[in-house]
Amino acid sequence: MIQRIIGGLLIYSTAAILLNLVGRAATKPETAQLLQWQNASLFTLPKPDPVAEAVMQQYLKAWQTKGAIPANQGIWIQTSSGLNLLAEHQGTIPLPAASLTKIATTLASLNKWGPDYHFETIVSATGLINNGVLQGDLVVTGSGDPLFVWEEGIAVGNSLNQLGIRQVTGSLIVVGDFYMNFQQNTAMAGAFFKQGINAKSWSRNFTFKHATMAKGTPKPEIAIAGTVKLAPTPPPDAYFLLRHQSPRLTQILREMNIHSNNDMADMLGKSVGGAPAVIQEVIKSTGISQNEIQLINTSGLGMENKISPHCVTSMLIAIERYLAPYQLNIADVFPLSGRDKDGTMHNRKMPLGTAMKTGTLREVSALAGVIPTRDRGLVWFAIINRGNDIPRFRAEQDQILAKLAEQWGDLPTFNPNLSQPPGIMGDSERIQQ
């Protein structure tokens, strides 16, 4: 186990040294280098920090007293340098990690597309437009946008109205990975779109979402006479009408992680290549042992998704270092204590400035992230609890962080880059005709 710990820790210490010496992000070590470091004899496992060790032992004893099995609890606490492991328990053992799996999905998504990526949805048509009537089919081609929601459909409908379309005599043809309102069934997503571009057929949800949009946003009226049809490719005679772009990938990831949205994670995971591809991206980015991560999906649903606390913190550090050259940080893609109040942040009492990700299943409560501190700098942590009292685990996870911040000085320095504001749903500026 010690060799695996050393292997993971040394990757980050070496990267940090290169970063300081050269002044730029270090390249990822090759496999041969990783093996060489794992077998190196001049390094020894750092001694635990007395403060972190005492806090960890206090809660391990409390959990055991209340019936939790010690072997089912995992903790890893370290600083950014990697050489300073502060405390660990079952640190390299893969445990059911619930939605901490979304950290892996976040890392793989950033590696594949980059932080400024936009998913595109193309709307095209067959036939002529005459007096507001499209005498043919309306075609929607998706590319896996996981955040095409009610407001986006309304905005696209208004843009089609601006192009002079009020009626469609043919059908709505849906091509590719088109999702709407987190619905992964393409036919149902198409039905949502057909409804969304015609205010006369709106459900209560569409009416409510429209009321939250900018004052004066029109209500689109496009009646499609035909049904929703699926096709592998657009019709050969289809011509371009408009291009819809999603918010930036960082904004999509932040939304996914704040609300721990399983559908969004599954959609992104599918586009990345599924759980096996996500695992490979994690190993490539962190140098972690393959034994420390086992995934059956990319959302975390299911006890079979297992990740070690060590692997979790390694992924978070890899994300932070990936974002740094873009003048971004981990708070641009994860919830931040003191900024975010909804979703998984509701009723949590973590130190201000803690960027984090939660994970919950019926018998699992997990929390991972980073605390900016005065004395220790960035302190990365992963806590995975297994047992029946989820509310108690959540409260005590927050208490652990509060005690560490009290000892080392809370320093809430994480501020999301001001050039990356939250995406506005239904923003017509992301539609090009």
What does this structure look like?
The chain is of the alpha+beta class. The protein has two domains: 45-116 and 251-408, 3-Layer(aba) Sandwich (Beta-lactamase); 120-246, D-Ala-D-Ala carboxypeptidase C, peptidase S13 (D-tyrosyl-trna(Tyr) Deacylase, Chain: A), CATH 3.50.80.20. The protein is built from twelve helices and 18 strands. It has helices at residues 2-22, 31-38, 50-65, 101-113, 150-162, 186-196, 204-212, 249-259, 262-272, 274-286, 309-323, 390-408; strands at residues 74-79, 85-89, 95-96, 120-125, 129-130, 133-134, 138-143, 167-168, 172-177, 223-224, 228-231, 239-245, 293-294, 306-307, 355-361, 364-373, 377-386, 431-432. The strands form four sheets. It has a six-stranded mixed sheet. A hairpin with a 3-residue loop joins strand 16 (364-373) and strand 17 (377-386). Helix 4 (101-113) runs parallel beside helix 11. It is elongated and about 75 Å long. The chain starts with a helix and ends with a strand. It is an enzyme of class 3 (hydrolase). Its EC number is 3.4.16.4.
